[in-house]
Amino acid sequence: MSRTMHSCFVTLAILFLWRVEEVAEACSCSPAHPQQTFCSADVVIRAKVVGRQEIDVGNNIYRNPITQIKYDIKQIKMFKGPDMDIDAIYTASSSALCGVNLETNGEEYLITGRLEADGKVHVTLCQLIGTWDSLTETQKRNLVQRYEMGCDCKITHCTSIPCSISTPAECLWTDWVIEKTFVGTQAKHFACVKRNDDSCAWYRGAEPPKKDFLDIEDP
Known about the structure:
- There is one protein chain.
- The protein is α+β, with helices and mostly antiparallel strands and 219 residues long.
- It folds into two domains: 2-32 and 40-133, CATH 2.40.50.120; 136-203, Tissue inhibitor of metalloproteinase-1. Chain B, domain 1 (Alpha-Beta Complex), CATH 3.90.370.10.
- It contains five helices and ten strands, in the order ααββββββαββααββ.
- The protein has helices at 2-8, 34-40, 137-149, 175-179, 185-189; strands at residues 43-59, 65-80, 88-92, 108-115, 121-122, 129-131, 154-157, 170-173, 191-194, 200-203.
- β1 (43-59) and β2 (65-80) form a beta hairpin.
- α2 (34-40) packs across α3.
- The protein is globular.
- One of its GO terms (biological process) is response to cytokine.
- One of its GO terms (molecular function) is protease binding.
- This is Metalloproteinase inhibitor 2.
- It comes from Echeneis naucrates.
């Protein structure tokens, strides 16, 4: 629980979230490309949310009750995670503590989270949480193979020009300086993939990356 709270209270602006306007002022997260969120997550699934309940998890130092929200889910597909079905996810009860508010009407979501030692999956607003329909077709394809292919690559966030990479194993993420959004073209349509020579480059295409590919290919 303490690791979850610590990860939420970082100093930079919120990153790639479809419902960023719902994030409370007390919860902010470091900017990250969706591929980075995929690579850092223990669990990445597509699931329906079918139930919600508030559960007691104890008291704080002031003896005030601490609650969490448990969402019952029906797993549709696992892109990354343990060899088991996930039937519930847990989050803080307040958005100020990075708690996630999900609809319980059978809406399908892409959910990324952390697998705790007790086997529970915990999610926060700092992770990639969004409705399945809000994903681009390229993002959906990238979840199957391409994001994982680039987990050894480093995605460097460009905050102002000039900016550059320091090693061939980096991809420069320029959505903010070019489009003034973290949900720009590179976030929506590109994956940073490792080449055979261990260098990394942005890739956009309908098929798995070729042996040698350009930074940009037609979808």
